[in-house]
Specification:
By secondary structure, the chain is an alpha+beta fold. It is built from 11 helices and 4 strands; from the N terminus they run H-H-H-H-H-H-H-H-H-E-H-E-E-E-H. A hairpin with a 2-residue loop joins strand 3 and strand 4. One of its GO terms (cellular component) is membrane. InterPro entries: ATP_synth_OSCP/delta_N_sf (IPR026015), ATPase_OSCP/d_CS (IPR020781), ATPase_OSCP/dsu (IPR000711). It is found in: Membrane.
């Protein structure tokens, strides 16, 4: 299978792993997410992979708070529910994104809405921190990165494969086997196929922060760039 052969040729690039680290910013946000539900653990809890930037810090802090409270699955479910609600309700989505809403109004609304919904203390405290800091508009991006962490914690790797036609079952299986060899037998590979006519052919593979572009569109651009280079006779 062409896709698997191309992927194997990129093995050296795929073998780089991010080390798990915690920044001072993560620790600062974690203190804001402290909950009475959390219990001291004999084993130090760390984020499974390093995330950077503001949304990465919030996602990492939420992961630590949920893990210490032994409620990762519940918090993940609640975070997914919030994202789903933003997609279903334009009004709710607009409320989250409207930075002109006074801080007191944001905090009260979050307290009322999610207390009534029966959300866990960890999730409610997390949303209150976002409301207080004017960061509710980033909740979807933070949620995506938090789910990345919970998947990494469970040994799951989401791989997005973009093609112009769906991969046949046999080729998808071979692709998963190739990724399994690269990422390790202890990982669970979750392949999500997306149709993208803009790539013209070939495929683009994305997982984590890595993108392997083997599309015809990119190859055509590379060929065009090569042909435009001056030739010495």
């Amino acid at each position: 299978m062409a896709a698997a052969r191309h992927l194997r040729s990129g093995l050296p690039l795929l073998q780089a792993h991010l080390a798990a680290t915690e920044s001072a910013a993560v620790a600062q946000v974690s203190r804001g997410l402290a909950t009475q539900a959390s219990k001291p653990s004999q084993k130090q809890i760390k984020v499974p992979e390093a995330l950077y930037g503001g949304t990465g810090n919030y996602a990492s802090a939420l992961f630590l708070a949920a893990a210490k409270a032994n409620s990762l699955d519940k918090v993940e479910s609640e975070i997914r529910d919030i994202v789903a609600a933003t997609k279903k309700s334009p009004m709710f989505s607009q409320f989250l994104k409207d930075s002109s809403v006074p801080k007191e109004t944001r905090v009260k609304a979050v307290t009322d809405i999610f207390s009534e919904a029966g959300f866990s203390d960890v999730t409610k405290n997390f949303l209150l921190v976002l409301a207080s800091n004017g960061r509710l508009k980033f909740v979807e991006r933070i949620a995506d990165r938090f789910v990345d962490l919970t998947m990494a914690h469970k040994g799951e790797v989401k791989v997005v494969v973009r093609t112009v036609v769906p991969l046949p079952e046999k080729e998808e299986k071979e692709l998963k086997e190739t990724l399994q060899d690269i990422l390790g037998k202890d990982k669970t590979i979750l392949v999500e196929q997306k149709i993208d006519y803009s790539i013209m052919g070939g495929l683009v593979i994305e997982f984590g922060q890595k993108v392997f572009d083997m599309s015809i569109k990119t190859r055509a651009k590379q060929m065009e760039s090569f042909l435009r280079q001056p030739v010495d006779f």
